[in-house]
Amino acid sequence: MKRLIGILLFSVGLCGQPVAVVIRGARVVDGTGAPARMATVVIRGTKIEAVASDAAVPAGARVIDAAGQTLMPGLFDLHTHLSASAVTGLAGDWGKSLKAYLACGVTTVNDYATNGEMLAPLRQLLSAGALAGPRVNMAVRMSTPGGHGTEAGWGDFMTLTAATPEQAHARTKIALAYRPDVIKVFTDGWRYGTAPNLSSMNLETLSPPLWKMRMRPASRSSPTRSAWPAPRSLPARAWMCWRTALAMRKWMRN
Ligand SMILES: [Zn+2]
């Protein structure tokens, strides 16, 4: 069986460059479910212009010969903690973690171990190219006082805490000021070594962050209630951690 090597279609290095990049000779998995096939892929900037066996090579293009290799779309890690090391005893290292993701073909990650103060500097490091890595969606975290995510003195700094709808409104206002891609909400009271309901968040308290992330338009301007989308049209930015997603689904059915 041929070597399987994922070549990154959306790597940072390709973004914004007007010169076309052509990858040819590879067996292409296009992510649609279609069988892999031999094809030439033409990329310009952040867009894939063509995936075809007879795609023309634009003049001046940078051509990558990928004969004998397999080309696939970048993978997406829906939930990671970049601050944590995957190796016991070693300190977490954002730079190494990000590079490892790229080397493994992961081009987008949702990181849930950031606090609001980290977002701007980390985004600056990534956009300036000081850190090579995938696209990173960053979270502000919210839990209940004493709930999961507040261990080791993390609440109310690493993890904002709220026990009432009023507190959740206030914390959500703080969270949105950091312009997070995601608000991670710990809702089920689980904590290391405990059963659920240690300090569960009720749906009324969950509502403010939920609605705020749903209503925010892509432009990130300050929306008004009249700009809220239809109840079931969730924009892509409304990702929540899976526990919250389950609660949300149940809530919306009721
Ligand atoms: Zn997590």
In brief:
This protein has 254 residues and is α/β, with parallel strands linked by helices. It has five helices and ten strands. Helix 1 (94-103) links the parallel strand 6 (75-80) and strand 7.
Describe the structure.
This protein is an alpha/beta fold and 254 residues long. The chain has two domains: 12-71, Urease, subunit C, domain 1 (Roll); 75-253, Metal-dependent hydrolases (TIM Barrel, Alpha-Beta Barrel). It is 24% helix and 22% strand. The protein has five helices and ten strands. Strands 1, 2, 3, 4 and 5 form a five-stranded mixed sheet that branches. It is elongated, with a radius of gyration of 21 Å. The site of zinc ion has 3 residues, from loops.
Outline the fold blueprint.
Blueprint: E1 20-28, E2 37-44, E3 47-52, E4 62-65, E5 70-71, E6 75-80, H1 94-103, E7 106-111, H2 116-127, E8 135-143, E9 159-161, H3 165-177, E10 182-185, H4 203-215, H5 242-253
Parallel strand pairs: 1-4, 1-5, 6-7, 7-8, 8-9, 8-10
Antiparallel strand pairs: 1-2, 2-3
Residues 79, 81, 112 line the site of zinc ion.
